[in-house]
Amino acid sequence: MADFVIAGVIIVALIVLAVFFGTFFTIQTAHAGIIQRLGKFSRIAAPGLNIKVPFIDSLVHTLSLQVQQLDVKVETKTKDNVFVQIPISIQYRVDPDKVYDAFYKLSDPIKQIESFVYNVILGHVPKLTLDQTFEQQAEIAVDVEKSLDASMKDFGYGIVKSLITDIVPDNKVKAAMNDINAAAREREATVSRAETEKLLLVKKAEAEAESKRLQGEGIANQRKAIVDGLRESITKFSEAVEGATAQDAMALVLLTQYFDMMKEVAGTNRSSTIMMPHTPNALSDLFAQFRNAIITGEVAAGASHAAAAQGLRPVTGPAQVAR
Q1: Is there a contact between 94 and 63 (Cβ–Cβ < 8 Å)?
Q2: In whole angstroms, what is the distance from residue 156 CA to residue 8 CA?
Q3: Which tens digits make up the pLDDT trace of 191-233?
Q4: Do 157 and 76 share a structural domain?
Q5: Domain encompassing residue 110
């Protein structure tokens, strides 16, 4: 008898526990519970402690109301026949006011979102070239977001953001694009270097012209100073020596400068300079001097031989020969 009593107590306790745990349940924050009664939708349970009729009501599913992200990679062809892969990140969430639609209208919302993304991308990118696709990346993402939001709103989902993270063309196309960019940058660098060299040459020419101009001014000033000095020297010489002309003073000055130059050349032991006349008249005078010296030497030698034959004293100079 006692065993039956203990068994009955245990059964009752189990029933009480089953009723208790079947009556009370909790829903986490940012989630919503779907309650069905005998297989039919009953209500939506809010976060926190909830009560349901045991054995009749059941918590069939819990939906998250948080923002979720779905990554989709779409492969398509551009207008210029370049195959590209476009990774898209879709951020979505369940509308708290449309939990019923989100659970009952779509059996697989992920597949549905992927289908809409493919539809939008394939409707835009084939109309654009590869360069236009890169340039309009943000516009494509906005179009995907608007189209998805309008389509998924009826199913209880809202699109928070649509992001195109990258556009990946074929490896060969990418290498060709890199070569084109490298060639363009090399061309720009060449033009820049040429412009720099041109600027340097122009500045160098301007500097040389300025240097020549200043050098010319210096020479002109130097010659002016020399002329002024000569004028002053001639004036003072004419005043000091009576009867002296400007030509006499100039000859004296030139002669003085000539001897100063000769003294300077001879004053160093490393000089190898030979002073030779270099004007046509000076060359003629030099030739005449050489010729006269040779003739005088031959005449003097002939006179010496004749005097020796006659027992006379030899002639020693040109004056004696002339006599």
Answers
A1: yes
A2: 49
A3: 888 888 888 899 888 888 888 888 888 888 877 787 777 677 7
A4: yes
A5: 68-169
